[in-house]
Amino acid sequence: MAAGNLGKGRAGEKAAVQLLRDKGHSILFENYRWQHKEIDIISLDGAVLVFTEVKTRTSFSYGYPEAAVDARKQAHMKAAAEVFLADHPEFLQLRFDTIGILISGDQVIEMVHWEAAFY
Question: What is the DSSP string of 19-80?
Answer without folding.
Answer: HHHHTTPEEEEEEEEETTEEEEEEEEETTEEEEEEEEEES-STTS-GGGG--HHHHHHHHHH
